[in-house]
Amino acid sequence: VDLTFRMICPRDGRKHVIIEDNNFPSGYKNDMRTYRIHRMSWWGESTMEEVAMSDTAQNHPTNLNVFYEAYSPYADIKFVVIHRSFVETVASHYAFDGTVEKHSNVIRGYMLLLRRFLDSHSTDEHTGQKLWTLVCVEHLSEKSHAGDEENMNLARRNILRYLAEFLGWSQEECPECFSHWRGSSKKHLKTLGQDGIEILLEHMRKMGGIWPPVVENALQEQKCSL
Q1: pLDDT of residue 12
Q2: In 44-131, at which residue ranges do the beta strands (DSSP E only) sit?
Q3: Which of 9, 34, 129, 141 fits as disulfide partner to 16, beta carbons 3.0 to 4.6 Å?
């Protein structure tokens, strides 16, 4: 790990930033990448507790506990949780796991897995600073502001300023950050159908207190709905 950091972050007196992003879960069951534990078919037939407790899920796509333990002695680690509507998430890619119900089982398992990691890592053990924070996509999209562009741009500026402070960056303004960002145009409820909607409503009732995670002293833009 030390050698890796010396290569990508030379000790030249400057501050280097590495951004790593992943969906949890991510990829297909037949993913060609041999170095990664693949998506498991049996997750879709399991409870969220069974998924969250499994070795396969805990190591797909990244074992967050191992990642933090390995890299935190060498770098300041910060996690930004980007939350999207549960219904939209399931509707967008349910074919990954075959059916709406199976995909929901997998997604809920990962919500539980991630929540347990976040609860056990509220602060960085090396710096004492907050280790993670939350961004709600719903508050940054055009759809959620019903065409009120001024209010939408204000929400986006608010979250960018907050993230700059959280990450310790001096630059708070980013006029082009959302220039190429587009919200989903899919008709999610139509995609799910009535049967799929009823399944998700039942599953959502079982998610109370698990997701979304709560940020202390949260901005309005960090108060997510499930």
Answers
A1: 85
A2: 79-83
A3: 9
Check if the beta carbon of residue 212 is closer than 8 Å to that of residue 134. yes
If you average pLDDT over every residue of the chain, what do you get?
Answer: 90
For residue 122 the two structure tokens come to: 């509220």
Q: What are phi and psi of 3, to 5 degrees?
A: -65, -40
Q: Round to whole Å and give the CA distance between 154 and 144.
A: 13
DSSP per residue, 36-54 = SPPPPGGGGGS-HHHHHH-
Give the pLDDT score at 26.
84
C-alpha to C-alpha distance for 210 and 130, rounded to whole angstroms: 20
* Pairing relationship of beta strands 79-83 and 132-136 according to DSSP bridges: parallel
Distances (CA, A) of 141 to 64, 183, 185: 28, 6, 11
Q: Which helix (H) or strand (E) holds 193?
A: helix 188-205
d(CA 38, CA 59): 9
C-alpha of 188 from chain center: 20
Distance separating alpha carbons of residues 134 and 221, to the nearest angstrom: 9
CA distance 214 to 201: 21
Give the number of other Cβ atoms within 10 Å of residue 173's Cβ: 9
Q: Can you give the pTM of this predicted structure?
A: 0.89
Q: How many CB atoms lie within 10 A of CB 131?
A: 20
Low-confidence ranges of the chain (pLDDT < 50): none
